[in-house]
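name: query_chain
kind: protein
chains: 1
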Amino acid sequence: MEDLGSGFFLAMHDLEIRGAGEVLGDSQSGDLQEIGFQLYVDMLDRAVQSLKLGKEPNIDIQIPQGTEIVLHTPTLLPDEYCPDVHERLIIYKRLANASERIQLEKIEEELIDRFGLLPAESKALLASHQLRIVGKKLGISKIDSAPHKTTVTFHAEPLCDAMEIIELVQKRNDIRFSGPSKIICEHENLDLTEERVKSLLEILNSLSHN
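structure:
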């Protein structure tokens, strides 16, 4: 940690590990098991916005959670592709904050322009964020995609019409329900992550476009 600005990054990692502590008190550390840095920032931002509107912050309102993506393949920026650890952290943060596909496309163009063609791990990383964005809009809590099947788990109250999910299952022989909140998409042995993600995005986009 000898580069310019490395002290800031070290402090940020320390903050994430120990927790942010109290805003108005003298406690200098928090509990990472209870709340992470990003969630702390989100809660603080929501409280500040409520106070600006003259309202009392409602701590009972749940912070919206994202979609967990499991692709059973490495999803990262390899060291040999992007050697600077600080730069990788910044890119990871930008990817995590992206809420639209156009933002991911701009980041992909920038990566190719700066570092060259994307390796397989980085393509999978971008694909996982594509699924995350679509999944969040549909109210999906988790997508677990393996070569032979993909399991999609919805929140208790999905953001898409439940009838659209039912109609999708009725129309396709390769999709079935697994309990009240899961659907399983069976497919051929798609070892290539890009093929799996492309197939899954077609299914999810059919729900968001109906």
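note: The mean pLDDT is 83.
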